[in-house]
From TrEMBL:
Name of the protein this chain belongs to: DUF8175 domain-containing protein
Alphabetic keyword roster: Membrane, Transmembrane, Transmembrane helix
Annotated segments matching region Disordered: 1-55, 79-118
DUF8175 domain: residues covered: 116-269
The UniProt record lists the keyword Transmembrane helix: yes
Residue spans of biased composition, Gly residues class: 1-12, 84-97
Pfam families with a match to the protein in the record: DUF8175 (PF26526)
Transmembrane segments: 58-76
Length: 296
């Protein structure tokens, strides 16, 4: 749940909005996310067991994160409303601790990826290609790299059109200000305190095309993710979230790039009563299980 999303309070960023939104149609396009193989069930979202934490503390934590997100939305949406409108709705497991990217299996779906950011490129000029681009961009927009200014400035041009990226960089710099990051326990560079591990990972569960033409597409990506700080005494413990991110894409220079994005909460299932993992287990999982290099 990176900053700058729209939980139904902001409008379409002039071509940008990370996280949730709702597309309208093209039923029947199934989405597959390639998962790493491994023993056990490392992918179950962390759940807090009843009684593990006081309700009042959970409420305070959730409210604090929501307030920060809304502040980020306000920064990103501030200013021009030219294009605006209302928002629509290989694992690294084993014995080592170094995380390794998860390699896709089967036929290579895209032509390449950016050497620095690892974001896939060369998506097909088709509905499936647009869905693949949207799913991959959702993962990047929900990553920890978004909390670091230098890394964010490398990511955004890989995701958005040149015009949209230029406008968005300044807004996101304000949204991810030192004071905003400080409220969730991070320093000005997006790093957690010693002994703490900040977690921000997004996993797309499905995509749906709302509109499609030869050169433009609107794609909704249903996502889940884990977000928060793992470590003893964390005031922002790692929790799971469910949201829908809608991206408006345009075919530019033989690839799909985002012009805007918006985000809304849900659809969210009922939580199970699975016992929550310890902060140490979550931190080790982040270190040992690498993120995906390709979605859909």
């Amino acid at each position: 749940m990176s900053l700058g999303g729209d939980d139904g309070y902001g409008g379409d960023y002039e071509g940008h909005e990370p996280r949730r939104g709702r597309g309208a149609a093209s039923e029947g396009h199934l989405t597959r996310t390639r998962l790493p193989e491994g023993d056990g069930d490392p992918y179950g979202p962390p759940r807090r067991a009843p009684g593990r934490a006081k309700p009042s503390r959970n409420v305070i934590t959730v409210v604090g994160v929501v307030v920060l997100l809304l502040a980020a939305i306000a920064f990103v949406n501030r200013g021009d409303g030219k294009d605006g409108g209302s928002s629509s709705g290989d694992t690294g497991g084993g014995g080592g601790t170094e995380a390794h990217p998860t390699a896709p299996t089967g036929e290579r779906p895209v032509d390449g990826k950016n050497a620095t950011t690892g974001i896939a490129s060369g998506f097909a000029k088709s509905e499936q290609g647009a869905q693949s681009a949207a799913a991959n961009y959702a993962v990047a927009l929900g990553s920890t790299e978004m909390y670091n200014r230098d890394q964010r400035h490398e990511l955004i041009p890989q995701i958005f059109t040149t015009a949209a990226a230029d406008r968005l960089q300044t807004r996101l710099d304000k949204a991810y200000s030192a004071s905003s990051l400080g409220r969730i326990g991070l320093d000005a560079n997006g790093k957690a305190a010693d002994g703490m591990t900040y977690v921000s990972r997004t996993a797309p569960l499905g995509t749906k095309v709302g509109k499609f033409s030869g050169t433009s597409a609107t794609v909704a990506v249903w996502c889940t993710g884990v977000f928060g700080t793992a470590g003893e005494g964390s005031k922002n413990p790692v929790t799971n979230d469910w949201f829908t991110l809608t991206l408006k894409l345009r075919w530019v220079n033989n690839d799909w790039k985002a012009e805007s994005y918006s985000q809304k909460a849900g659809p969210a299932p009922v939580n199970s009563d699975r016992t929550a993992s310890t902060a140490d287990e979550i931190a080790k999982a982040v270190e040992q299980y690498g993120g995906f290099t390709y979605a859909r």
